Amino acid sequence: MALLQISEPGQSLDPHQRRIAVGIDLGTTHSLVAAVRHGVAECLPAIDGKVILPSVVRYLDPKQGGAGRQIGFEALAAQIGDPANTISSVKRLMGRTRAQVGDVDKLSYRVVDENGMAVVETVAGLKTPMEVSAEILATLRFRAEDSFDDELFGAVITVPAYFDDAQRQATKDAAELAGINVLRLINEPTAAAIAYGLDNGSEGVYAIYDLGGGTFDISVLRLTRGVFEVMATGGDSALGGDDYDQALAAWVLEQAGLGPVADAAERAAMHREARRVKEQLSGQPEAVFRSEIVGRQVEQTVRREDFETCTAALTARTMTAVRKVLRDAGVGKDEVQGVVMVGGSTRMPVVRRTVGEFFGREALTNLNPDEVVALGAAIQANQLAGNNPDGDLLLLDVIPLSLGIETMGGLVERIVPRNSTIPTARAQDFTTYQDGQTALALHVVQGERDLVADCRSLARFTLRGIPPMAAGAARIRVTFTVDADGLLSVSAREQGSGVEARIDVKPAYGLSDEQIAAMLQDSFSTAQQDMAARALVEARVDADRMIAATRSALAADGDLLSAAERDGIEALIVTLADVVVGGGAADIEAATQALAKGTEAFAAQRMNRGIQQALAGRKLEEV
Ligand code: ADP
Ligand code: MG
Predict the structure, then answer these.
(1) Peptide bond just before 423 cis, omega within 30 deg
(2) Protein residues within 5 Å, CB atom, of ion ligand 2
């Protein structure tokens, strides 16, 4: 039995299906989920329309019955009434011991060590930070699945650049608990830079200034050939928007001639009001603070200048950290090519102004600073899921040379293009070339050239047991999967019968950087020549297929034709067969067209006969 070949590329059926991949910003204060839809990254809202999910989980007393927990805004609203069982800022505990967390006593809930890791004591028992984070992640996963009405393929989750292995592993574990396939963890500053498309821009040094609710992170990244490298990170894990709230609350107390407030609930309410006023002041020159403090209704107008003055020390502290990180990275501020603003607190005009003045250039603020990390993660997730084959995003782990398979005529059909980020999975459908073909030889190759002879052979395998069908009727899906370690596996499956074959290959194995460079160089310099060769081979393959199909039709249904009609078709076949041997691509295409036109009437007659045969012997009601 002859092994038969795959059809030529133009005949491939529908492209691989889209996979639902999202980016998740698992923040200390807020978390978000975003996805690329119609080519644009956007944050996905909950049913109430809000994209932000407070990173807060409240555990309920199991003895009271009920669902057990509240997540997000519901938990946040309950925090004042039940601080001991309402977990916020759990990110600070991830992968840490109690001693490593620092300032645990300031948290409203109890943290103890268990098996060498900080865990939270709640009315519902001990909860690990991973479990708490998993509640937040699962909420975002369901949000994504609801909005796409489909299962989630995977997610890119962001972590601070300074997170160590234990903290990263804890984040991965949390995702696993939430039933999420982690495509990759990426650094928050890198995600922000990707959201601004800096990876497509000029090479150079970028600073990412991230002032959130409870933390300040400053990172210096270097972009080289589309790859971001973290040069230095710094900041202050106990400096954020909350401190601005406290400073404002203290200022209001002072204006009102009041001392420190003893009552915890009253203090919390006051901080909340301070936060509201602070946020309002980002958009307007003054706002009014109203709160009941020690039995007195306090009402205080706050001008933006007042706010900026009473928080000046905080803003100055962020700039001290900025100067330090530039020193650590060994770059001057004038070498910084762009400054990205991240985190809700960078909405404060004073922050934007101060940062802009320091760097002598306006900071990038046109994307929503709460969303920018999630948006960048979504772009990355979309790439990793293989949804954007044209994307030119280049990250650290990429496939150095394209991977593909041999198709009819010794041509290469590229399945995974060079520079695809890994892990990745790509699929393409092929069909059989000859009637009754029951096996398919697959030849996996690597390289940029169009002809198999010019590429590197990686592996061969055979798909057997395809039920005999007419040429073109079988649907064979060939899937290339490259895992995070660069391991390639190729599978071929006939969709109708389910017969399958697969093979594992190590693609990059044995090729040095120089060899890769040489193969690329080669492909660039010969691109023109390859294109012409490809056109010719494709035209020949088309012609051969047309001839074979016509011959088999004549054999089956030739009796439908008059002798003259039959002669006419035979003549067209002979002309085409001649030109295939000696002609150029254009001549072959023209002759193929002529044969196709000359057999149109015959094809229609065959179809009628087919329908009649199908209907023969059946009652009208059955049809
Ligand atoms: P995290 O990364 O820590 O989860 P976010 O980036 O969500 O935090 O930032 C939350 C902080 O942003 C809060 O302190 C909040 O008050 C502050 N914030 C949000 N909007 C504004 C605004 N319009 N003006 C000033 N601060 C704001
Ligand atoms: Mg953040």
Answers:
(1) yes
(2) 27, 212
